[in-house]
Amino acid sequence: MKKSFIFYPFLFALYPVFGLYARNLTEIQPREVIRPVIIAIIATGLIMWLLNRLLKDRERSAFLAAFLVFFYSASELAYRVIEGYLIHGLNEAYHRVLLLVVTVMLVFLGSRAVWDKYMPPARRQLMVSYLNLVSIIILIFPLYNIGAFWSKAIDDAPQPWSSYIGANEPPQTLASGNSPDIYYIILDGYGRADALAALYGYDNSPFLDELRDRGFYIGDQSQSNYLRTSLSITSSLNMEYINFTEDLAGAESTDRIPMFELASNNRARQLLEQAGYQFVLVDSGSAFSRFYDADTFITPFKTRPNLFEMWFYSTTALGALYQPELPITPTLQEYLPVAGYATHRAFIVDALDNLSNVPDLPGPKFVFAHIIAPHPPFVIDENGNPLQPDYPYVTGDGASFASDKEYYIQGYIGQVKYLNKRVLTVIDNILKKSNRTPVIVIQGDHGPGLLLMNGDTPDNCLWERASIFNVYYFPETKTDALYPSISPVNSFRTIFNTYFGTTFELLPDKTYYSLFEVPYNFLDITDKVRNECGVTP
Ligand SMILES: [Zn+2]
Q1: Is 373 found in the same domain as 240?
Q2: How many domains would you assign to the chain?
Q3: Could you tell me the distance, in angstroms and rounded to a whole number, from the CA of residue 223 to the centre of ligand 1?
Q4: Are 74 and 116 members of one domain?
Q5: How far is the CA of 238 from the centre of ligand 1 (A)?
Q6: How many whole angstroms from 505 Cα to the centroid of ligand 1?
Q7: 348 and 416, same structural domain?
Q8: Is 149 exposed, middle or buried (0-12, 13-18, 19+ CB in 10 A)?
Q9: How many CB atoms lie within 10 A of CB 512?
């Protein structure tokens, strides 16, 4: 009898990978998907081969391998469907029960007894042809979406976006001289003191006083240039507004992929590297600030899976093993961190730990740390104890925040208090350990998102979202060029003019709105966000 050609187990194994990628096309770089694809293919081949050696039955081995790999690659998703739609509040431990039940069921369906009884040779042939066909059909949908996205996206970045930076200014180089280390620390979503007082009833002035005592300048009228993390950080690192992206990608574009290059190859980094600096990245797990090509990449874990991998593994059977009550979890996490609250928390805590040790690295150095706090999710209380939100891991803020306002206020202020304590220690350590007095900038990339919960539109009050924490430590207190409403786009201009002999003109401090999903459709909201809206949460 002719041997049937069996390929469906491989396509079944690829479906969860391509499915997840197809749902996140606008923020996943294709190269991030390569490793999971290779692993899926190798794992399937290996399991098929092993089963075949054991069972001496090609069709049965393929059947078992296909459905086991397929199910194990998406079991956390299956569990969440059950939890979300059928049995609310189901404990994650039931993911393990689900794994067991389905495994037993599949082993039974693939058992010799069942096949001898119900699978005569002709039916086996038919099943292989049928499953081969099904495996092609299910892959058509994600592959079609991926193809459609990329056939459009290919026009968005004919040349790297960073090549457009500085086009309207005479080029400048940094004078080498006393070369202070530069620390640029983003505390994601950290709002301005008056916004915290008005909307959260929280007085942040003791912290600001501590900073003033140490010689910090407080930009107490600062507002961000953009309201979204990726735009704000990309712009501040490039020292200019990035509204030209609207012409490159189109106002209706949803494609954030070219922005990775623009953020990573940013102008501040390039100028400093030309001046002999090494670039040190303190990893926070945030997609837009994981510049893997940094000279020194400091990450909390023993391995460096990319963000897609961390998301993908968290949807697989591995998700069942990342539970606080399991003794294996901490070790597993160290080698294979998956997206979730534990990993999120480790990124925050370790980034703060690591910042205190960075001064030991040889200089001169440009240190960039983007810490995802006090931004939601709220995973740490004010004393540093772990918090576990009672909804599946999401990082959404404002209109996409997964809980209510009371919880937001409490969680947000808890993380502010935690950060305040940790940040003061970090500052003291950096100042104590540095050979030369460094420059330190600590900044919110945008404000909090409490009022955005009312709706993420330009008609709502955006004052809170635009008002940022923004403080500067300048050696020898050369703070003459700083002013209360300085915005992030001017941070590096001021640093370079003050310490590196450049003559960058300061740009007008403006704020632009755009939707998270449609990032390049900019609306100038500068005048609107200057005033407190009189809205209470
Ligand atoms: Zn942010």
Answers
A1: yes
A2: 2
A3: 13
A4: yes
A5: 17
A6: 26
A7: yes
A8: middle
A9: 24
What number of other Cβ atoms are within 10 A of residue 247's Cβ?
10
Sign of CA dihedral 328, 333, 337, 339: positive
**190 Cα–ligand 1 center, Å:** 9
Residues 465 and 449: their CA atoms lie apart, in Å, by 6
pTM of this structure? 0.92
Q: Could you tell me if 262 and 135 lie in one domain?
A: no
Task: Kindly give the distance from the C-alpha atom of residue 227 to the centroid of ligand 1, in angstroms, as a whole number.
Answer: 8
Residues 96 and 231 in one domain: no
Measured in whole angstroms, how far is the alpha carbon of residue 142 from the centre of its chain?
Answer: 23
Q: Is residue 417 domain-resident? A: yes
How far is CA 163 from each of CA 56, 236, 237, rounded to the nearest angstrom? 59, 16, 14
> Which residue is associated with the tokens 């996206």?
153
Residue 118, CA distances (Å) to 111, 114, 122, 127, 340 in order: 11, 6, 11, 12, 43
In the reported structure, the alpha carbon of residue 529 is separated from the centroid of ligand 1 by a whole-number distance in angstroms of 17
Tens digit of each residue's pLDDT (9 = 90 or more) over 40-70: 999 999 999 999 999 999 999 999 999 999 9
pLDDT digits (tens, 9 = 90+) for 223-276: 999 999 999 999 999 999 999 999 999 999 999 899 999 999 999 999 999 999
For 327, the token pair is 């003794």
Domain that holds residue 85: 8-153
- The answer to whether residues 447 and 195 touch, using CB atoms and an 8 Å cutoff, is yes
- Phi-psi group of 387: left, alpha or beta (phi > 0 → left; psi -120 to 50 → alpha; rest → beta): beta
Tell me whether residue 1 is in a domain: no
In a domain, 148, yes or no: yes
- Spatial separation of the C-alpha atoms in residues 121 and 59, rounded to whole Å: 10
Within 10 Å of residue 382's Cβ, how many Cβ atoms?
14
Q: Which two tokens stand for residue 228?
A: 């979204």
**What per-residue confidence (pLDDT) applies to 366?**
98
Which of 153, 188, 205 is the last residue in one of the domains? Answer: 153
Q: Quickly count: other Cβ atoms within 10 Å of residue 78's Cβ.
A: 16
Exposed e or buried b per residue across 54-75, where buried means at least 16 C-beta atoms within 10 angstroms of its C-beta:
ebebbbbbbbbbbbbbbbbbbb
Q: Which residues of the chain have pLDDT under 50?
A: none
Is 74 inside any structural domain? yes
